[in-house]
Amino acid sequence: MKIPLKIKIFLWYLRRGVVLTKDNLAKQSWHGNQQCCFYHENKTIDCRFTRLVWATVVAAGGLPQPRNVSNMFGNWTIGVPKEYKQLVRVGA
Known about the structure:
The protein is mostly helical. It has helices at about 5-15, 20-25, 50-60, 70-75, 80-90.
């Protein structure tokens, strides 16, 4: 795909689970602020904003919410034409 190299690298890190999100940092005994920056809840993976984003993806594309990052890069896009799969993953 013709996307900037920094996005390709980020997606590579994301797929391997090494992106230092607040959730991943908390698993490593990080003691920083773990609240969602949008709704100030102590959940970042399943906050209201995240649910809204995935509801929009589901409504716009008819795709189910991925169970996890591995699922998003794996069989999550079953039924999407091959020429659009990478684009859907980058968009998500």
